[in-house]
Amino acid sequence: MCVALSGGAMILSDLFIIYLAAAAPFGVSRFLAEHASGTATLPALFKGAGAALAWPVTSLARLLLRGSGGRTFKELSQDEQRVERVKRAAVNALRAVEDALELAREPLGEADRHTLYVARESVERYVGLALASAQARPEAKPTAREMELCRIAGRGGDDLLTAGRCVHRRNVTRLVAHRERASSELVQALAAVCALAHEMRAPRPSADSEEQLRAGGVERISEALPRALSRVAELPACFDDRATAESVARLLEAERGASGRAAGREGEEPCTTQAVPTAFASSPLRTTTSHGG
């Protein structure tokens, strides 16, 4: 009988040791998370101890949270993939514009190539900053990195959390400002490409064979550039950036008019371009470009 009781006590003690061993990671993780968020050491220690003792409930809650977070991350990943496809289409369309310009003027000058390179880089920069600013929230909890300098300065508890929130809001404000600057640079870069295309379409005397080659390049420019502007115009629509969408739409309308006039000088029918992206199909954007030429 005594042997049975002794054996049962040993089993209970072993189970208790195993329980505490499994609880330790949960307690340490909760303590570090609370301490990083600005909680004082003693309250963070008590919360960590509570999470360790109730680790089955804590682990279940984490699994449920991770499952819901996985669905949110999946949706966000799908949005990023859609934006990535639109961005690649826009960059490839700008490369097609470069090919058309090379056909109209062989070879392109260094300044012309730089203009086209800046346009592609502006698309990349705008998309990256727009994605980052779309995910940033001023009211979100500050990260440990944002509170690191404040912690080194000696802040702690609620004071540290308040300082971290201030730093986070400042970072979000800076990120939005960078996105707005990237939007302006994108429109300027596209306008420079349009100006380069207009220069290429300007008539000039040349030999017959060279003129035929150049005419083919001008026709390709009149097709490729409006297509590229249409692709770029889909990007701000992905982020609900109406100001940038309106600016690109004005460039698109002006380019259509210029392409039609260039085709008229060639004695051909005005070329038809792709439709404006579906984001503008329901309510066309008003522009300031006159239709009188």
Describe this structure in words.
The protein is an all-alpha fold and about 290 residues long. It has 2 domains: about 15-60; about 75-280, no CATH class. About 80% of the residues lie in helices and about 0% in strands. It contains 8 helices and no strands. It has helices spanning about 1-35, 40-55, 55-105, 110-135, 150, 155-200, 210-240, 240-265. Helix 1 packs across helix 2. The protein is elongated. The N and C termini lie far apart (about 105 Å). Residues about 65-75, about 205-215 and about 265-293 have low confidence and may be disordered.
Number of domains: 2
Beta fraction: under 5%
Which descriptor suits the 3D outline? elongated
Strand runs, count: 0
Largest sheet: none
Number of helices: 8
Helix content: over 70%
Distance between the termini: 107 Å
Radius of gyration: 30 Å
Poorly predicted regions are 67-76, 207-213, 266-293
Structural class: mainly alpha
Write down the secondary-structure element order: HHHHHHHH
* Residue-averaged pLDDT: 75
